[in-house]
Write a structure and sequence with these properties.
By secondary structure, the chain is mainly alpha-helical. 59% of the residues lie in helices and 0% in strands. The termini are far apart.
Length: 160
């Protein structure tokens, strides 16, 4: 997607030029996966052929995406919208519209934030994350805050 955006902004439409630029940008560790295509450049749509091979090698299956989604950790030091972006990056297509996805998102938020969100019914998960960002910004614990702990004062005389 990034390469194609660069091609569009540079008005590059030639399949061969796109092919050459992509090959030049590939890290060495990925060249071995496409060396046969590089050595015998397809006469028709060389960029598309190269792109499909790379996608086959690197795009996660839905099962792999689900595994990654369930392995993502809690909010941590991110904003809720950043957590959501991480989740969406590994979400199988269409799952982000399911109630279970919203549940998985909410479960990764601190209890205080879930309480503040209440039973929000947002049609769009991004709207919910934006609301969570605003609430979290005003309610998250500050690192410089220190809570004082004091022993309870007893009116009973202590025996020494």
């Amino acid at each position: 997607a990034l390469a194609e955006a660069k091609f569009r902004t540079s008005n590059i439409t030639s399949q061969r030029v796109m092919f050459d630029l992509l090959v030049a940008a590939l890290p060495e560790k990925h060249l071995s996966q496409v060396m046969d295509i590089i050595k015998a450049i397809p006469a028709i749509n060389p960029y598309e052929v190269l792109k499909l091979r790379l996608l086959e090698a690197h795009v996660l299956s839905d099962q792999e995406k689900m595994d990654a989604l369930f392995q993502l950790g809690p909010l941590g030091d991110r904003k809720p919208s950043q957590l959501l972006a991480s989740m969406l990056s590994v979400c199988p297509s269409g799952m982000e519209l399911q109630p279970v996805f919203q549940y998985l998102f909410l479960q990764r938020l601190p209890q205080t934030l879930r309480t503040l969100l209440g039973e929000q019914e947002c049609g769009d998960i991004r709207t919910l994350a934006a609301l969570a960002d605003r609430l979290w910004a005003s309610h998250k614990p500050q690192p410089h805050e220190v809570m004082a702990v004091q022993e309870p004062v007893s009116s009973e005389p202590q025996v020494v």
